[in-house]
Amino acid sequence: MQQAQTIPHDALVVGVDVGGTKIAAGVVDTQGNVHGRIKITTDTSTPERTLSSIAQGVRSAVQATGVTMEQVHAVGLGIPGMVDPAQGICQISVNLGWQNVEVRSWLERELQLPCAIENDVSAAALGESIYGVSKGLDNMVYLSLGTGIATRAIINGKLYRGAHGMAGEIGHASFNPTGPLCRCGGRGCLEALAAGPALALRAQDELRSGKSSLLRDLIGKQPLENLRSEDVFEAARKGDALATKILREAGQYLAYGIYLLSMSLDPQIVIIGGGLAVEGSPLIEAIHEGVTRWLENSPIFREMSGLNLLRLSSLQHDAGITGAAALITSAH
Ligand SMILES: [Zn+2]
To answer: Known Gene3D superfamilies for this protein (predicted)?
Structure first.
């Protein structure tokens, strides 16, 4: 099935944000409004079952919106991994356990609708650039900060994919060659230093080594492995020195990443999205502090960017859904 060349002015498109644990989907209208948002658990037991959960997510979103499948024009999907949009294939997804899965042809057969696929962070960047805080800006960097870390850039109004669609995988660039092991096999990756699970692991290690902290009260009698990044945030909010130190260090690594991306790509803004992009969070404050330090240290960075460089995502979780839908509706 070929993607339709012309899109009706009242076209409805289903946008799907496929995650390793949850699939979020919604019906997106031409204004970028999301209707019938649903979230279901991803069945990753086999690629076929994962594809079936995606198809189920699409049908549930359509049903929740109160429209029929016949009223839907197409389906756009953001996939966590390396994706070939032209072939409709996901070459590799660690989160889904996929290797060379023919996503588009399977779903088009199942749903009888044209489908388009892209990397999930690329889709979210597209969503932000078309409907979010960078609407109307031609150059921006989107930083997804959650259980993983990745960035994607819009350059001169277009999503910059690079040779493999992976341009912006700074989460797996090493910021400390002697740092902790990353799930990718590398050492000291930005993701292993500053993503949610890394913050929790770091706090667990510090507590194991006998450091005193409010975190001990928060965790109570539970095993240390139950400690989450949310606990580190809560302790930092209450003024705990250890939690504050952990977040400040992570913020400095992230700020250095933002500084390098800004110097290389000269974006108008850098948008922070993903699960940890929460207004007033101590991690976001630490990133601001780190970027402020780079602005003070680097006259050229200061000339190029100001304190307004950083923005929080305005779309939050809808960035992935609207961006996936925009794969169909925009000339990205
Ligand atoms: Zn890595």
So the answer is: 3.30.420.40
Q: Give distance in angstroms: CA of 170 to centre of ligand 1.
A: 9
**CATH number, domain with residue 191:** 3.30.420.40
Residues 145 and 109 grouped into a single domain: no
Ligand 1 centroid, distance to 180 Cα (angstroms)? 10
Tell whether 144 and 174 lie within a shared domain.
Answer: yes
Q: In which domain, by residue range, is 22 found?
A: 12-129+318-329
How far, in Å, is the centroid of ligand 1 from the Cα of 38?
Answer: 31
pLDDT score, position 280: 87
- Examine the domain organization and report whether 162 and 124 are in the same domain: no
User: CB of 124 within 8 A of CB of 146?
Assistant: no
Q: How far is the CA of 8 from the centre of ligand 1 (A)?
A: 42
When divided into structural domains, the chain yields a total of 2
171 C-alpha to ligand 1 centroid (Å): 6
Is there a domain that residue 118 lies in?
yes
pLDDT(54) > 50:
yes
3-class SS of residue 271: strand
Please indicate, yes or no, whether residues 97 and 242 belong to a single structural domain of this protein: no
In this prediction, what percent of the chain has a pLDDT beyond 90? 89
3-state secondary structure 298-319: CHHHHHHCCHHHEEECCCCCHH
Distance 48 CA to ligand 1 centre (A): 27
3-class SS letters over 23-58: EEEEEECCCCCEEEEEEEECCCCCHHHHHHHHHHHH
